[in-house]
Amino acid sequence: MRRAPLLYGARQCPSSNCDPRPPGCRIDLLVIHNISLPPGCFGGDRVDDLFLNRLDPKAHPYFQEICELRVSSHLLIRRSGELVQYVPLGLRAWHAGQSEFQGRVACNDFSIGIELEGDDYTPFTEQQYQTLDQTIADIRARYPAITPERIVGHSDIAPARKSDPGPFFDWNRIKAGPRIKTGPRKRKKLK
Questions:
Q1: Looking at residue 78, which CATH number applies to its domain?
Q2: How far is CA 162 from CA 41, 69, 127, 157, in A?
Q3: Alpha helices in 28-166 (DSSP H)
Q4: Helix (H) or strand (E) holding 96
Q5: What pLDDT digit, counting tens, does each position of 131-157 carry?
Q6: Quick check: 73 and 51 in contact, CB under 8 A?
Q7: Cα dihedral sign for 32, 59, 64, 52?
Q8: pLDDT (tens digit, 9 = 90+) per residue, 36-46?
Q9: pLDDT of residue 5
Q10: Active-site amino acid positions
Q11: How far is CA 143 from the centre of its chain?
């Protein structure tokens, strides 16, 4: 596969659950998800294990249901604000499943997926929002077709199946634009 953008500052955790996007496909959608494994539990390496096809079905009863799934996301933002990258942005990650946005199906083809460690019942952390603000700014600098109107939740592209990122996600903050601190910290840049 050809080299595709990686985000500086992200811990790289390459997943094989990806493939090339269709020829000529323009990346113009950003999909925000939430994930916790097992559901409602934060921390640990279980999300990495899922996206790297090494989830132990004996570690928790829920894992028996999902250990055979071949899924991934481009990025994960942990509760601490740590950014993890599984798939280069130019490749297709397998995060959206059966989906549709503005009449276009198969959203994985033209979207970037960001998972937030969380669930539908717990507010996200300030550290997560800070990392998300910076990450969205970095992605939009590389893919300007991703306008604020094209930043959506998984629930927007698969409403019959999904509810994430959930009712605690602060859409007003995201739609208002990034709150990036200025100062000695350098912005992450795309490779």
A1: 3.40.80.10
A2: 19, 16, 25, 8
A3: 46-51, 61-66, 126-142, 154-157
A4: none
A5: 999 999 999 999 999 999 999 999 999
A6: yes
A7: positive
A8: 999 999 999 99
A9: 81
A10: 115
A11: 15
